[in-house]
Amino acid sequence: MASSATLPSQMKAWTYAEYGKSSDVLKLGSDVAVPQLNDDQVLVKVVAAGINPVDFKRMLGLIKATDSPLPIVPGYDVAGVVVKVGSQVKKFKEGDEVYGDINEKALDHPKQFGTIAEYTAVEERLLAFKPKNLSFIEAAGLPLAIETAHEGLERSQFSAGKSILVLGGAGGVGTMIIQLAKQVYGASKVAATSSTGKLDLLKSLGADLPIDYTRENYEDLPEKFDVVYDAVGESERAVKAVKEGGHVVTIVGTSPVVPPAVMFVLTSNGAVLEKLNPFLESGKVKPMIDPKGVFPFSQTREAFAHLETGRVTGKVVIYL
């Protein structure tokens, strides 16, 4: 491993200098400056980077008003090895294997230099040690999705013995909500929606009631739920499936959110990953990588094209 003295000043990274479709604007550069470290940051040699819908929405210019300046290296999720630490860093040292979501606020000035690069700089508080039993690829698919799942469950005051309906159970966030609700929070019942071909997956993750959204309307079920977690952007329907006094949280604000549903945007926090690591290391909660969702760094455009189909099961990850 390179000691900090011999780190290169330039690196390979995927960047875009204008907003647009990934197939049009993403370019591979070999002379991108390696990010400079602040005192509270570590420099991570990227081994794998997970990509999320927020990446291509940002690339399209949907958060232009609060974005960092162009050109941008996309990518929120990272798993890799610490190669340099800032002067105030206490927890990590060179050689540590870490993972995390490098953008504390998902939509408020996410970093100009993201994770689809050979190196990325990230604040110590946003990272956790990589679970020992997981590969870098598995770990890279977790942070944004598992932290989002956790934050929504916390905001909805979910707790042992409660029931939950997960809308979009087979997606990156949905697969994590089902597992956390069951394994970490002790749900009495987990219902989840997906298309016909993914119902067995929902069962395998812990869903007691898999619902085929192509065949039935969950809001028409006689049973209502303590919490509805909407990962697809259907708050108008979601609120019809919650019990009186229950909670509805949504992470997709495609249209106005209908009360009592509440929309939130993730705040990244390495402490959440640390808290969940024992569940990952024991195998109670498992990463979900799409069967066709692992791409080499050279095929980053193809990785985005796959993610943009909207039919991904679990996560898409790029490895270096």
What does this structure look like?
Belongs to the zinc-containing alcohol dehydrogenase family. Quinone oxidoreductase subfamily. Keywords: NAD, Oxidoreductase. It comes from Theobroma cacao (Cacao). The protein is an alpha/beta fold. 23% of the residues lie in helices and 28% in strands. The protein is built from 9 helices and 15 strands. Strands 3, 4, 5, 6, 7, 14 and 15 form a 7-stranded mixed beta sheet that branches. A 6-stranded parallel beta sheet has the order 10-9-8-11-12-13. The radius of gyration is 19 Å and the shape is globular. It starts with 9 loop residues before the first strand and ends with a strand. 49% of the residues are buried.
Q: pLDDT under 50 segments (min length 5)?
A: none
Average pLDDT reading? 96
Structural class: alpha/beta
Order of helices and strands: EHEEHEEEEHHEHEHEEHEEHEHE
Task: Indicate the radius of gyration in whole angstroms.
Answer: 19 Å
Quick structural overview:
The chain has helices at 22-25, 53-59, 136-140, 143-155, 172-184, 199-205, 235-238, 270-281, 300-307, and strands at residues 10-15, 27-33, 41-51, 77-85, 97-101, 119-123, 127-129, 163-167, 189-194, 209-212, 225-230, 242-250, 262-263, 289-296, 315-319. The protein has 320 residues and is α/β, with parallel strands linked by helices.
Q: Any key phrases for this structure?
A:
320 residues; alpha/beta; seven-stranded mixed β-sheet; 9 helices
SSE map:
Blueprint: E1 10-15, H1 22-25, E2 27-33, E3 41-51, H2 53-59, E4 77-85, E5 97-101, E6 119-123, E7 127-129, H3 136-140, H4 143-155, E8 163-167, H5 172-184, E9 189-194, H6 199-205, E10 209-212, E11 225-230, H7 235-238, E12 242-250, E13 262-263, H8 270-281, E14 289-296, H9 300-307, E15 315-319
Parallel strand pairs: 8-9, 8-11, 9-10, 11-12, 12-13, 14-15
Antiparallel strand pairs: 1-2, 3-4, 3-6, 3-15, 4-5, 5-7
Helix pairs in contact: 4-5
